Amino acid sequence: MKVSLKACDVVIFGGGGDLAMRKLLPALYHLDMDGLLAKDTRIIGASRRDMSAKDYQEKVREALNEFVPTSVGDEKTWPRFKDRLSYVSVDAQQESDFARFNEHEVGSDDRDVVFYLATSPDLFGSICSSLANHGLNQERMRVVLEKPLGRDLMSSRAINDEVTQNFGEKQIFRIDHYLGKETVQNLLAIRFGNTLFEPLWDSAHIDNVQITVSETVGVEGRWGYYDKAGALRDMVQNHLVQLLCLVAMEPPGRNDADSVRDEKIKVLKALRPIEGANAYTKTVRGQYAKGMINGKEVKGYFDEEGSNPESRTETFVALRADIDNWRWAGVPFYLRTGKRLGQRYSEIVIQYKSIPHSIFNDESNRQLQRNQLIIRLQPEEKISLTVMNKVPGAGEGMNLQPVDLNLSLSEAFNNKRSPEAYERLLLDVMRNDATLFMRYDEVEAAWKWVDGIMGAWSQTSERPKEYASGSWGPAASMALPIKDGRNWHDY
Ligand code: BG6
Question: Where in the chain is CATH 3.30.360.10?
């Protein structure tokens, strides 16, 4: 289904920055290529730097050459896209500069306007108040807030209080790019578009759930930001917790913003706090040391540019979460994420319970494997279901082995290009659909839970455990499910 859109203005604060060049402009370009931008939609880069529209177009062209290789020589989309691009030089802390948006006719002709704040969150409040003071907070105008939305509950509240002085909740789009990933949306399709899975989606049938987001990259020149955040704030508070919510929530009555978010918030509120001594048995923190990844030697955390050897920031975290409600009582949710691990991949594994009684009693069948539903987000997008099968052959008797039923999305849909998360999310903001964005009560509940863990960690003098780059994290993280008689699913 093609989405018909009315023309709007997309203003990107931090328009010359890394996120804009690597993700936002390539996403907008792809939308234009696919015919999903209205004819008169404009894209306006905004930042402190003095630059002409022509210079900005040139900068964007270079970024597209690098990040959208198929755009090189694309004479169909580029001329159209280039004409959409303009630039306004604005110091986010200089309110008078915002008059330039009016000179630029942003929001004229009753168009919708999307202000994408790809800046430091310290600036969110002042940008929103300057926009309001220039009449740029009308109902048809929306702000998109990039993470991090604070570093704990208090700071996130402060940001929210400032922004909501000038924009209503319905105008605020808090982005978590994991929710824009195709397979994440497919998780909703699997759960609520089939009769097959939902009746088995509970503690009577599921033994445990595992969510892994494993990265091979290190902090990549972001030490300043990352060292203040760490894996728990950077990845768990948002991406992993959001995935957990989509796995664990009750079926919403409708697929609209409030219905979905009302169900997610119930999960967040049912998360058992991990506090005090619990933090030692239920969480593992790690920090990467040097090692080898894909045959190349890579640096340790303390050898990164700008590093501080006293840092106790975790680059890896594994934890056991429990959801205290009827559906999930007794089902552990194991979450882990880390930088500089052996392989880049993200997946959700639903591990079903063992069969109650085996009729296949010979030696080779003693260890019948349990069914597993694996939802792989990256590198490839696929869904697989492991089922036990008879090994073919008359002389084999009833010898059973696990076999994967695989659904590769690219094969199933004839290699149709799978859009990047930001494409879907930008399109949703333009059409004013907040279903895949976070409401403030969700952000707040996630921070409350994470604050408990941070608080417990801060009480200890123990350092995060070192792990070699290229490994799967500290040994203690392997032991986390083993203590409960379970194992991590191997990639
Ligand atoms: C970002 C984090 O939100 O997500 C980064 O700040 C992380 O540290 C990135 O590398 C991972 O995103 P993806 O889509 O590459 O898995």
Answer: 179-430+439-483
Pocket of ligand 1 (CB under 6 A): 177, 215, 234
User: Is 489 marked within a binding site?
Assistant: no
Q: Is the model's pTM score more than 0.90?
A: yes
Ligand 1 center from residue 179 Cα (angstroms): 12
Q: CATH: 2.30.30.100, 2.40.50.840, 3.40.50.720, 1.10.10.350. Which one for 8-175? A: 3.40.50.720
- Catalytic residue numbers read 239
DSSP state of 463: P
Mean confidence (pLDDT) of the chain: 94
Q: How confident is the model at residue 3 (pLDDT cuts 50, 70, 90)?
A: low
The annotation status of 304 as a binding-site residue, yes or no, is no
- Distance in Å, CA 452 to ligand 1 centroid: 23
Query: How many Cα atoms are found within 13 Å in the side-chain-facing hemisphere of 39?
Result: 0
Contact between residue 316 and residue 474 where contact means Cβ atoms under 8 Å apart: yes
Q: Candidates 23, 174, 177, 304: which one to mutate for ligand 1, based on the most atoms within 8 Å of Cβ?
A: 177
Question: How does DSSP assign 174-236, residue by residue?
Answer: E--GGGGSHHHHHHHHHHHS-SSSGGG-STTTEEEEEEEEE-----TT-HHHHHHH-HIIIII
The better pLDDT of the pair 139, 409 is held by 139
User: Is a pLDDT exceeding 60 seen at residue 84?
Assistant: yes
Digit-coded pLDDT (tens) for 188-201: 999 999 999 999 99
Nearest CA to ligand 1 atom 9: 235
266 is an annotated ligand-binding site residue: no
Q: Does pLDDT of 366 surpass 70?
A: no
Residue 462 annotated as part of some ligand binding site = no
Ligand 1 atom nearest to 219, measured from its CA:
8
273-297 per-position pLDDT tens digit: 999 999 999 999 999 999 999 999 9
Which ligand 1 atom sits nearest the alpha carbon of residue 234?
6
Report the run of H or E that residue 421 belongs to, with start and end. Answer: helix 421-430
CATH 3.40.50.720 residue spans of the chain: 8-175
Residue 398's pLDDT is: 82
Task: Give the atom of ligand 1 at the shortest distance from the alpha carbon of 226.
Answer: 8
pLDDT of 418: 83
Architecture of domain 179-430+439-483: 2-Layer Sandwich (3.30)
As given in the structure block, the two tokens for residue 436 are: 């895949």
Instruction: Collapse the DSSP code of 363 into the 3-class scheme (helix H, G, I; strand E, B; otherwise coil) and give the result.
Output: helix
| pLDDT given at position 488 | 96
Q: For residue 8, give the H/E element and its range.
A: strand 8-13
